[in-house]
Amino acid sequence: MAYKVYLVDDDRFLLDLYAVKFRGAGHEVSVFGSGDDLLLALRKSGSDSPDVILLDLIMPGIGGFEVLVTIRKENLAKGTKIIILSNQGQDSDIERAKQLSADGYIIKASAIPSEVLAETLRTVEATGKPR
After folding, report:
1. Which residue in 9, 18, 93, 125 is a FRET match for 109, CA 20 to 30 A apart?
2. Are 78 and 130 in contact (CB under 8 A)?
3. 38, part of any domain
């Protein structure tokens, strides 16, 4: 099954790398270079939410945790799975992501793109229909 995927990272190289991997697997991909850009798109899209958002934590401007808080507070992206994709691997970061109802957490430095793709699909498919 093809999914609508939003990738959010300030690293253009990684955005392109992951976008190629997901598109190559048949998924529709939109890329965002900042949390602000993502929130703007989510507020515009209304009910046309993506199936999954891969969200970096450390970005200029609004960071990933702040984006996640805003998504939850404004009830944006209803039913969308949100996976943190970051080099921040401290237990405190992982715990905070869980507290903010992130659906998954992938440490970039520990996963090649094909593993990120596989883990993303597992997360989307294992948790069933939107909450």
Report:
1. 125
2. yes
3. yes
Closest by alpha carbon to 82, among 99, 63, 105?
Answer: 105
The whole-angstrom separation of Cα 116 and Cα 96 is 21
As a three-state string, the secondary structure of the chain is CCCEEEEECCCHHHHHHHHHHHHHCCCEEEEECCHHHHHHHHHHHCCCCCCEEEECCCCCCCCHHHHHHHHHHCCCCCCCEEEEEECCCCHHHHHHHHHCCCCEEEEHHHCCHHHHHHHHHHHHHHCCCCC
Provide the pLDDT for residue 126.
Answer: 82
Give yes or no for a contact between 120 and 52, defined as CB atoms under 8 angstroms apart: yes
Map tokens 């997901």 to a residue: 22
**CATH code, 27:** 3.40.50.2300
Q: Supply the pLDDT for residue 36.
A: 96
Q: Please identify every stretch of the chain with a pLDDT value under 70, giving residue numbers as ranges.
A: 45-47, 127-131
Read off the pTM. Answer: 0.93
